[in-house]
Design a protein that fits this description.
Helices cover 37% and strands 14% of the residues. By secondary structure, it is of the alpha/beta class. The radius of gyration is 17 Å and the shape is globular. The longest helix is centred in the N-terminal third of the chain and has 14 residues, at 21-34. The chain is built from 11 helices and 7 strands. The chain has a 7-stranded mixed beta sheet with strand order 3-4-2-5-1-6-7, with helices on both faces. The protein has helices at residues 21-34, 49-53, 65-70, 99-103, 112-117, 137-145, 163-176, 196-208, 222-226, 234-237, 242-255; strands at 8-12, 39-43, 80-81, 87-90, 126-130, 148-154, 183-189. The protein has one domain (8-255): P-loop containing nucleotide triphosphate hydrolases (Rossmann fold). The structure holds adenosine-5'-triphosphate (ATP) and magnesium ion. Residues 17-23, 45, 49, 133, 189-190, 218, 220-221, 224-225, 228 line the site of adenosine-5'-triphosphate.
Length: 257
């Protein structure tokens, strides 16, 4: 029998909005796919930015992550190929916005995603779940299903704000649903080397997360902001850009454990 590689399942989470969760999900996913890894992006944000950013129109499918969470549809039934080799997406649609409400009365409401992912166990090397900017039931589902959490932190003055609350929720999930869950990676995003504050913020984040802060820092670059509107990950949109190189370096770090 072929030995089956462990599927690493990341929740990409930070309840703060606009810190680079989706950009990191699609760019890192694409960089890992480029290296020959089979990668699944699970879009858990009703805005569907990870879906459209990978050139997929979620509205054209009958089923989405919404059905996975509420209607017991296995993940394997909603996985779609992207136009990029080795890279797949479980698309989100706007109806996902109602899930937080609808899930509250459902049995094992925290474990829906975990169960659904069993249907793709071993099919991928990496799964990245792009969480919405909140700590509601969708994010809890991601934490229950994850083997690791990746926290993008925007390099700005209030970078660490809210992370205590995030860690408290992770602690709750650890004790009740997923004992081995941990933040395995913290990555600084939108780093601006011309801004003297950036170095201070980086030092502060390193003090708070001495063991898990990634060596790779993602620079602030307009190309990264432009790529999604072309439906392409940065590694395809502008393969030699600083952003593409940074996410390839991050992919390397992730592959090394
Ligand atoms: N390194 C970067 N340089 C420049 N712009 C960036 C960078 N990373 C992300 N952005 C831009 O910043 C905005 C927020 O990024 P992104 O959507 O990835 O954050 P998010 O955490 O997923 O947001 P939300 O909480 O709304 O889901 C987007 O317009 C994105 O294109
Ligand atoms: Mg997002």
């Amino acid at each position: 029998m072929e030995d089956e590689r462990m599927m690493r399942v990341f929740a990409v989470a930070n309840q703060k909005g606009g810190v680079g969760k989706t950009t990191t999900t699609t760019s890192l996913g694409a960089a890992l796919a480029e290296r020959g890894n089979r990668v699944l992006v699970v879009d858990l944000d009703p805005q569907g930015n990870a879906t459209t950013g990978l050139g997929v129109d979620g509205r054209q499918f009958e089923r989405s992550v919404y059905d996975v969470l509420l209607n017991d549809i296995p993940m394997v039934d909603v996985v779609e190929p992207t136009g990029f080799q080795n890279l797949f997406v479980a698309p989100a649609t706007l109806d996902l916005a109602g899930v937080e409400q609808e899930l509250t009365s459902v049995i094992s409401r925290e474990l829906r995603l975990k169960r659904a992912l069993e249907s793709v166990d071993g099919d991928f090397d990496f799964v990245f779940m792009d969480c919405p900017p909140s700590l509601g039931l969708i994010t809890i589902n991601a934490f229950a299903a994850a083997t690791e959490i990746l926290v993008p932190v925007q390099t700005e003055f209030y970078a660490l704000e809210g992370l205590t609350q995030l860690e408290r929720i992770i602690g709750l999930v650890q004790r009740n649903l997923n004992p081995t869950l941990r933040i395995s990676k913290v990555v600084l995003t939108m780093f601006d080397s011309r801004n003297i504050l950036s170095a201070d913020v980086a030092a502060e984040v390193r003090r708070h997360f001495p063991d898990v802060l990634c060596k790779t820092v993602i620079p602030r670059t307009v190309r990264l902001a432009e790529a999604p509107s072309f439906g392409q990950p940065i590694t395809v949109f502008d393969p030699n850009s600083k952003g593409a190189k940074a996410y390839r370096a991050l992919a390397e770090e992730i592959m090394n454990g």
